[in-house]
Design goal:
It is built from twelve helices and no strands. It starts with a helix and ends in a 7-residue tail after the last helix. By secondary structure, it is mostly helical. The chain has one domain.
Length: 330
């Protein structure tokens, strides 16, 4: 399969940001900057790489292979790691019935995956993919994008009225749908491959202009979280800041040369994404036992733990690639 260098770089840097954004003891401003665009980035790339060459039946079979089976597998793995906390722990997990996560799997609300918070991404992208296959694939990308923008605008205006989360992450999926369709438009229009953006001096000028704007706007809007339907101080700024962050990351990646490390991270992201929180759970408990919470070491731990979690997940990915490739959609 032909690799697109800037896509590999974007996925690699994106998954690093996802892991770092979940690391304990991270600086608040870094957290805000990461969350302002890191999940929209993955929905954007999913749309950018979406194929229009399959029939509905073929597309659904591919969806089952690439997303539904990995979702089931990583849910099972997360459940197995959660069970010891239920039986032998003394926290919130021990006060729940052992089958509680299984019942939540049926409803799959975005805020209900307490065994592994990142699992919400799978049903969210599954819902978006089904909508794309059945409805939006019949439309021109620009038409689908406009519809998704109208839906997102309506959601941003009325988000305060949502008291109960929708099943199968449908509410968060309506947000992700906008970035997915934006990815399709970017691919169809050839925006990321334009001649102007191939000129390095122009890219550097854009970065010098856009980076300060992104930094100030993201911090001013404050904490956001697509999973929690939290869009900051001014909700309508959220999609604009996210798009700006995605574009800036693309500009940075367009300056980078092909890298085996980026390609490995991009390929391994299917394992890094759902497994790193499990590793963090054990690392954090161990570190709290041996380190003083006021220690200067805590300022370094988010970066050390992120690197360690990524390395471990890459080993797991390589193992699954050889032993159980279908579990990771290969």
């Amino acid at each position: 399969m032909l690799r697109i260098n800037y896509i590999d770089h974007m996925k690699a840097l994106g998954i690093i940001l996802v892991v770092l954004g979940h690391a304990a003891w991270l600086n608040e401003n870094i957290y805000i900057l990461i969350y302002s665009f890191h999940m929209p980035l993955f929905f954007f790339m999913s749309g950018y790489l979406a194929s229009r060459q399959y029939s509905i039946k073929e597309a659904l079979i591919k969806l089952n292979h690439r997303l539904i089976i990995p979702f089931g597998f990583f849910f099972f793995v997360s459940f197995c790691f959660w069970l010891p906390l239920h039986f032998f722990g003394s926290g919130q997990a021990s006060n729940m019935p052992w089958f509680d996560p299984l019942s939540r799997l049926i409803t799959a609300q975005a805020d209900s995956f307490h065994i592994n918070g990142v699992l919400w991404f799978f049903p969210c992208l599954i819902v978006i993919s089904v909508l794309q296959i059945i409805i939006f694939s019949k439309m021109k990308p620009i038409t689908a994008f406009i519809i998704s923008a109208v839906i997102l605008s309506f959601l941003l205006v009325n988000v305060g009225l949502i008291k109960t989360r929708f099943y199968w992450c449908f509410d968060s999926a309506l947000v992700g749908l906008f970035f997915f369709q934006m990815g399709r438009v970017a691919k169809e229009s050839g925006l990321l491959n334009s001649t102007v953006l191939s000129k390095k001096y122009f890219v550097w000028i854009l970065l010098l202009i856009l980076l300060p704007i992104f930094y100030i706007a993201a911090l001013q809007n404050g904490r956001v979280d697509m999973r929690e339907l939290s869009f900051g101080v001014i909700p309508f700024l959220y999609p604009l800041i996210s798009c700006l962050g995605i574009f800036i990351l693309f500009l940075i990646c367009s300056l980078l040369k092909a890298s085996p490390t980026s390609r490995l991270l991009a390929l391994s992201s299917i394992a890094i994404f759902p497994l790193h929180l499990i590793i963090f759970r054990f690392l954090n408990k161990f570190q709290l036992m041996i380190l003083d919470s006021t220690s200067v070491m805590f300022s370094v731990l988010p970066y050390f733990n992120s690197l360690l979690a990524i390395v471990i997940c890459i080993f797991v990915f390589n193992f699954l690639k050889k032993r159980a490739p279908s579990a990771i959609g290969l």
